[in-house]
Amino acid sequence: MGSAAAADATGASVDQLTETYQAHYRSLLRLAALLLDDLSSCEDVVQEAFIRVHAARRRVREPEKTLAYLRQTVVNLSRSTLRRRILGLRLLPKPMPDMASAEEGAYDALERDQLRTALRGLQRRQREVLVLRYYADLTEAQVAEVLGVSVGSVKAYGSRGLAALRILMEGSHD
């Protein structure tokens, strides 16, 4: 017996694997396409399946089952590819939306308009304190200095202004 015949007796030959590759590449690619979502991944999986079966060809006890081994390898590699993708997606940080939806933008604009209207309904000093404190982000001492009043007055105007603002905003949602 020659070496080729000995290889046939101990497993699938390179020639048999090459013939199987040529005859069944497209059907294995279609199989991968049913399991995966992009052509390049399918091609990679089918190619890797042939490489693995080629490396293990001596263990294929029944050479006529080479195609079955290839199909099973394509399925297993496709599963592994999907598992890696899913794991990768789970590990990625959740992206923040680039921009608010039109509905959110409209709702935000409505709230801002309601807030402006409610602020106009406050006493002048209450409105000034709230705008300087929360919009301009000044400390109570800084607001007192800007308005020429005491820190205690800023606290009082701020407290009463917030209470009045809550009432006015709740009334605008009804």
UniProtKB/TrEMBL annotation:
InterPro entries: RNA_pol_sigma-70-like (IPR039425), RNA_pol_sigma-70_dom (IPR014284), RNA_pol_sigma-E_actinobac (IPR014325), RNA_pol_sigma70_r2 (IPR007627), RNA_pol_sigma70_r4_t2 (IPR013249), RNA_pol_sigma_r2 (IPR013325), RNA_pol_sigma_r3/r4-like (IPR013324), WH-like_DNA-bd_sf (IPR036388). Keywords: DNA-binding, Sigma factor, Transcription, Transcription regulation. Belongs to the sigma-70 factor family. ECF subfamily. Residues 21-85 form the RNA polymerase sigma-70 region domain. Residues 113-165 form the RNA polymerase sigma factor 70 region 4 type domain. It comes from the Bacteria. The lineage of its organism: Bacteria, Bacillati, Actinomycetota, Actinomycetes, Kitasatosporales. It comes from Kitasatospora arboriphila. This is SigE family RNA polymerase sigma factor.
